[in-house]
Design brief:
Among the domains are: 71 residues, Luciferase, Domain 3 (Luciferase, domain 3), CATH 2.30.38; 98 residues, GMP Synthetase, Chain A, domain 3 (2-Layer Sandwich), CATH 3.30.300.30. 30% of the residues lie in helices and 25% in strands. The strands form 7 sheets. Strands 3-2-12-11-13-14-15 form a 7-stranded mixed sheet, sandwiched between helices. The termini are far apart.
């Protein structure tokens, strides 16, 4: 099987349809323009830099229309795009760059100082007006012939781009993203959310993360819709677009729990109507039930799904009826994805039994870039071992309980932090909360609650424990509490629990 150039297809069928809106620059492009600019970039890769199919191009850039032009230009040229986390310092980027071994790079002008350190000796382009050692991206496009290039058919298993894991559970790994993964993710997303060419997505998550690129920028472009691109997430700006006050009415949005939390805490949230919005979805980490309820009070149903960089990512997205009837459920596996829940012995679990979630299907990665050991550990007997604890009910609807590595054992009892966090988010005065297991001489491990108080709130450790005792079994009640100004988060908005465990190892 193979994949065709769906950008070119959309440009042929709907040349004047609006494809991209770049909020920061104010620029917008029709599919005709988008296809031409991606072709110009492909020509630069082939003719100027002489990159061959399979060569890697590193991109260190903020979200923007040019990011998607480069992605589809790489597809046309057969070049593998390496999507780099711009939040990392040079010292953390260097091993990733060494692993990917790019032949050239593109960076935003803000990252020129970092580029000088990590891309020494490589040809490059700079997005922006900064006078640097390398030519400007726009100049490179202007120098190309303008002849539209149609991507040759690509095999389903050919690598399109690399997304590196955050490294919260070890050194970052390059997750191979194939053309087939992108295709099936688009199909799965269309089936689950019924997105179409009439939809407009607000893309607020970073494109170097699967949630930003694949939920749902690529599927929307596959369908012939419009992507409104935020350079970086800004709650006030997001509300303006979601509320229909931008240049086009937004109909689709995906955010991680932190994004939804920050939107709900913004002063304009209470008065916003969100009249044009058709579908709200979330993923990344367990969604606090209190947050789901805050949106439900405004008539908004957030469909909390599940996926991973390794799964393309779409595995679960519940329909609105399920999301309302079973808050916190991720529903049933969508489209082409198959799932199992197994115990530690590898036996299939029954309804209500907790175990590790396994995933299989054409949306699953073939493995990690140049890392056969990690690939063999994750992919066994045709199934991806997710490292997530899950269960399903008698109807076949699934719940994601927590990460296996986040679970701790206190006095012989398994404790899942997400359950405690759900309760803490209901406590008056708690703005954010994270729970980790820390060493204890008597119980081996006990819970430590790290809490960000709401502005003006007067919380005490004992008040937090008392609140928890009213709703949890004794062994689940955090034995220790710490108050902080902010929780450390990954670029995708997940709480960096390994960092918290390191920080509070002796708490």
């Amino acid at each position: 099987m193979f994949v065709v150039d769906w950008l070119h297809k959309q440009a042929q069928h709907h040349p004047d349809k609006l494809a991209l809106v770049d909020v920061a620059s104010g620029r917008s492009f029709r599919y005709r323009d988008f296809d031409e600019r991606a072709s110009r970039f492909a020509e630069w890769l082939r003719e100027h830099w002489r990159l061959a199919p399979g060569d890697r191009l590193a991109v260190l850039a903020h979200n923007g229309s040019d990011y998607l032009e480069m992605l589809y230009g790489c597809a046309k040229a057969g070049v593998v795009m390496v999507c780099l986390n711009w939040r990392l310092p040079a010292a953390e980027l260097q091993p990733i760059v060494d692993d990917a071994a790019p032949a050239a790079f593109v960076c935003s002008e803000e990252f020129v100082p970092v580029a000088r350190q990590v891309f020494q000796g490589l040809p490059g382009l700079v997005c922006g007006t900064h006078a640097a050692d390398w030519p400007a991206y726009e100049s490179a496009l202007a120098a190309a012939s303008g002849e539209v290039v149609e991507m040759p058919t690509r095999g389903m298993d050919e690598t399109w781009y690399l997304l590196y894991t955050s490294g919260t559970t070890g050194r970052p790994k390059g997750v191979v993203q194939t053309f087939g993964m992108a295709f099936f993710n688009a199909v799965n997303a269309m089936l689950a959310t019924k997105l179409s060419g009439d939809d407009v997505l607000l893309a607020a998550l970073p494109f170097f993360h699967t949630g930003g690129l694949n939920l749902y920028a690529n599927p929307i472009l596959h369908a012939g819709g419009t992507v409104v691109i935020q350079k970086q997430f800004d709650a006030g700006e997001a509300i303006r677009w979601l509320d229909g006050r931008g240049s086009v009415p937004v109909t689709q949005f995906l955010g991680v729990p932190a994004v939804y939390l920050f939107i709900s805490q913004h002063p304009e949230f209470a008065s916003a109507r969100f009249a044009a919005m058709r579908h709200w979805s979330a993923g990344g980490s367990p969604m606090p039930l209190a947050l789901l309820e805050a949106y439900a009070a405004k008539g908004i149903t957030i469909c909390f799904g599940f996926g991973m960089t390794e799964t393309g990512p779409t595995v679960f997205i519940p329909d609105e009826a399920t999301a309302r009837a079973k808050p916190g459920s991720v529903g049933k596996p969508v489209g082409s994805m198959l799932t199992r829940v197994v115990d530690r012995a590898g036996r299939d679990c029954g309804p209500g039994e907790r175990g590790e979630l396994l995933v299989r299907g054409p949306g699953v990665t073939p493995g990690y870039w140049r890392n056969p050991q990690a690939t063999a550990e994750a992919l066994r007997d045709g199934w991806l071992h997710t490292g997530d604890v899950a269960f399903f009910d008698d109807d076949g609807d699934y719940w994601i309980v927590d990460r296996v590595k986040d679970m701790y054992i206190s006095g012989g009892e398994n404790v899942y932090p997400a359950e405690i966090e759900n309760l803490l988010y209901r406590m008056p005065g708690v703005a954010e909360a994270a729970v980790i297991g820390v060493p204890d001489p008597r119980w081996v491990e006990v819970g430590l609650a790290v809490i960000v108080p709401a502005p003006g709130a007067q919380l005490t450790e004992e008040a937090v424990r008392e609140y928890c005792r009213a709703g949890l079994a004794g062994y689940k009640v955090p034995k220790r509490v710490r108050f902080v100004d902010a929780l450390p988060r990954t670029p995708a908005g997940k709480v960096e629990k390994p960092l918290l465990r390191q920080r509070y190892a002796d708490a």
